Amino acid sequence: MYNQNRIFRVLRLINLLKSSPSKSIKRLAESIEISERSLYRYLELLEEVGFEIQKDSLNRYFLNHDQIESFTKEEVELISKSISSNQKNNPLVKSIRTKLVLLDEMNVASNEIVASHYSKVISLLKDAIETKSQVILSKYQSASTESVTDRLVEPVSFSSNFDSITAYEIESGINKFFKIERIGDVHILDYQFEHVDKHEYLVSDIFGFNDTGERHHIKLQLSMRAMLWLRDDYPSSINFIKEDENGRWILEVEVFNMEPVHRVIRSMPEDIKFFL
Question: How far apart, in whole angstroms, are the C-alpha atoms of residue 27 and residue 175?
Fold first, then answer.
């Protein structure tokens, strides 16, 4: 019913909407390589199957992290049998069954398709590092500039959990972090490294920002929901989250950029506050 490419686009769209920051229609459409008109249809499809898509004050779209999960295969089968036993010709039953099929199809395919894509990206970058080859990071999604562009880089090293890679960007002449999940594709070129003397092994803060000389000591009070969300979205934060004697969750850490701190607070204002 839905080919693999369409399933992959839907899954990519869900991941984009769930990851900070919120995104414009233009950026979402460019990221999954469809027209803006088609993107509105995809958003309508997600809303039809139970996702509550929201917009911020700048008219950018996002999904809250506590969105409902897809049904399990067993739950889909049980619901499908229950609603179709005596009302096979009911249009509403047909509509519900169609949505259940989509949910089940997405759920079954998600791990395989998304994991396969990330594995391919990591494998290609690993080959480029070993062969010292320049690469193009195709359709890279920049959170800071809200753009989707191709980046010519010389990859240097992966982060410890392989969620990002340090690479020397030739156009800017700067070593940067590139998030694996934001890379559309990797193209290895027939050109060897030309700037090895400028390569640096960057150390990032918990939000993935590299050291630019700035230092900001933060201490945040988190609800349990916010604590779990931070641990899921920013795994390296685990080492800096502690429960105090009053049962409150506290994140205390040094960061290199305050922008992501303010962003996560804005996304969960009732659950994350500066510690007083």
Answer: 24
Same domain for 185 and 135, yes or no, is yes
Is 214 within 8 Å of 259 (Cβ atoms)?
A: no
Sign of CA dihedral 141, 146, 148, 151: negative
**Which letter, b or e, does each residue of 104-116 get, where b requires 16 or more Cβ atoms within 10 Å of its Cβ?**
bbbbebbeebbee
* CA dist., res. 142 & res. 209, Å (int): 13
- What 3-state class would DSSP assign to 245? coil
My answer on whether 30 and 110 are in the same domain is: yes
CB-based contacts of 143: which residues, under 8 Å, 6+ apart? 20, 21, 182
pTM of the predicted structure, to 2 decimals: 0.54
235: cis peptide before it, omega within 30°? Answer: no
The Cα–Cα gap between 245 and 144 comes to 38
What CATH number does residue 142 fall under? 2.30.30.40
- Please give the single-letter amino acid code of residue 119: S
Structural domain including 244 reads 216-274
Who contacts 8 (Cβ-Cβ below 8 Å, separation ≥6)?
113, 114, 117
* Residue range 147-201, pLDDT digits in tens: 788 999 999 998 766 878 999 999 999 998 898 888 988 999 999 999 999 998 8
Sign of CA dihedral 18, 23, 29, 35: positive
